[in-house]
Write a structure and sequence with these properties.
Elements: E1 4-7, E2 14-15, H1 17-30, H2 38-44, H3 49-56, H4 63-80, E3 86-87, H5 91-100, E4 104-112, H6 113-124, E5 131-135, H7 146-155, E6 162-166, H8 169-177, E7 182-185, H9 192-198, E8 202-204, H10 207-216, H11 218-228
Parallel strand pairs: 1-4, 1-6, 4-5, 6-7, 7-8
Antiparallel strand pairs: 2-3
Helix pairs in contact: 1-2, 1-4, 3-4, 5-10, 10-11
Amino acid sequence: MMTLAIFDLDGTLANSIYDLADAVNKALADGGFPTHDYDEYRHLVGNGAKKLIERALPGGSPPELRDKIHAAFSENYRACCLDKTKLYDGIPELIGRLRGEGVLCAVASNKPDEFSRYIVESLFGKDVFSVIRGKREGTPVKPAPDIVYSIAAELGCDLKNAVYIGDSDVDVQTAHNAGLECIGCAWGFRGEEELSRAGADYIARKPQEIADIIGIGMENFALNRKERL
């Protein structure tokens, strides 16, 4: 059985796409640039705030402009990051079950560390996750495995007993770069097709399946799924 479950945040634990989009769109509109529909943001997010701004701006925008829009986005997001962001149905019950079975739960996000901690603790309360880690200066964003290594080191956990859970190809790559198996969340921003194409080891179509995969063992779950199919 796994003893450490590391979760992505946006699109995995919480649907944050509307607040992210609103904050970026306000920064773009205030700067005189075109905005984007909510659905477009599902493919703009995933690689950190700076990459989000780069993708949202017209191609070829200079670094100083990207920095200016990024600063405006950060100010906007600080004010609205919990206006529309909600946990996905079944997530609180999932985390409660895992913790009740002795599994440590952690968050590894490309969202800036300040926002990651604030949002997770606001939605779940404090002390639910053993570690909440967002993007910090000097640390590469996912899919670099550094954030996974740092979480395991802080908790004193062997990565052989850890699993990574996320909703995008970035998460699958992060898991595999760290030597972990990945459980893909089909309800997230990118969907089951992208997760399968990226090589997710398992696909969960609802949160409870994550607990089943971890609880009965990944190998057995895979065998049981094949039998059901």
